[in-house]
Amino acid sequence: MAWWNGGDNGHFPVLHLCNCDATIAEDMLIVMAYLAQKPTVYPDAWGYRDAMVALVEQWREQ
Q1: Cα 10 from Cα 12, distance rounded (Å)
Q2: What pTM, to 2 d.p., does this model score?
Q3: Which of 8, 20, 29, 36 is the most exposed place for a label (fewest CB within 10 A)?
Q4: 35 Cβ contact list (under 8 Å, min separation 6)
């Protein structure tokens, strides 16, 4: 979410992937590659709207 709306969800510089474990970074890149192929697909398209709203509320700074 930080890539699409960094101002509201916290900025995530892609360079920070260098600080991740190689296996985790690879998994993250797989997800990013998938999203790059289908840029208009949002979690609510798969029925995860409520879960995503809860996640944003949990991590958003109070």
Answers
A1: 7
A2: 0.43
A3: 36
A4: 41
| Cα pseudo-dihedral 32, 36, 37, 42, rounded to 10 | 80
Cα angle: 40, vertex 44, 48; to 5 degrees: 135
What are the pLDDT tens digits along the chain (62 aa)?
A: 555 666 776 777 777 778 888 898 889 889 888 878 876 777 778 888 898 888 888 887 65
Interacting residues of 40 by C-beta distance below 8 A, sequence separation 6+: none
Separation between Cα atoms, residue 43 and residue 25, nearest integer Å: 21
Tell me the backbone φ, ψ of residue 60, rounded to 5 degrees.
-70, 135
